[in-house]
Amino acid sequence: MYEALSAMDPATLNFSDGGLFILNITISIIMFGVALEIKLAHFRDLVRRPRPLLTGVVSQFLLLPLVTFTLVMLLWKNMTVGVAMGMILVASCPGGNVSNFISTLAKGNPALSVSLTAIATISAIVMTPLNFMVWGSLYEMLGPWSSNPLLQELRIDPYEMFKIVFILLGVPIVLGMLTNHFLPRFTEYAKKPIRIFSVIFFIGMLAIMFANNYDHFVRYIAWIFLIVLLHNALAISTGYGFASIMKLDTRNRKTVAIETGIQNSALGLVLIFNPAIFPQHLALGGMAVVVAWWGIWHIVAGLGIATVWRRISNS
Length: 315
Description:
Elements: H1 2-6, H2 17-35, H3 40-48, H4 50-75, H5 81-92, H6 99-105, H7 110-142, H8 149-153, H9 158-182, H10 184-212, H11 214-245, H12 250-261, H13 265-272, H14 285-309
């Protein structure tokens, strides 16, 4: 596997400055749409019913990065630097905005899902840079490729990453919450179309990226498919298992599992192609392909498991 993937890391993907600008706009619209669902009641719920919310936050921001790092280390020399760091970046991102729909489809707890999305999205302003820095540094220290030139140059400036994440998440979230508070009628009218638009637009961006880099994806997709399949399955299992340990009911277990397994890969792609964070002279093919395929697969896997879970009793 390593021989096949090692040729992917140095690949330079065809992604223009115009594409990055559109992707930035897309993530801002996605985050604005998420914020339209955020209300102060979600944070009051954290005080009134802390266990389900804390379970979801711990699962997403502590256990998922830990499980990801363990998987990367277990695969050891079969894992290239680019693929490993792409997995760590995905695990550092907050939940994706489709998780609320998938949780509803699975007969989970939509209220918990929305609250977790709200809290995780705001927390990501700090936790995404922090997790990527911590687990990326551990991989550099303990992994087999510490002398790899790509890994040496992937040392990010956490402040710069925080600043970019704050702009991409913080500003749209504040605008969305203000809109929700002062324009409730507009919010009710707009939030569903914005959610649908953002998902379709993001999938369209991924389709264009795949088309522009068809040769790279065809050459490596078999191994990336298996890695993302395993990673995503572990993410969902971690969420469900931890929620079971915390003695949550079945509805909440489903929801925590979905929130842990649906990641905001759009944010990951924006960060990868942002020259202020990752120098664009680096070969970031492995990272980009992993994050891009996550953007497709987590929706497919989420819809699939939601269809199965609809049949499971919530008692």
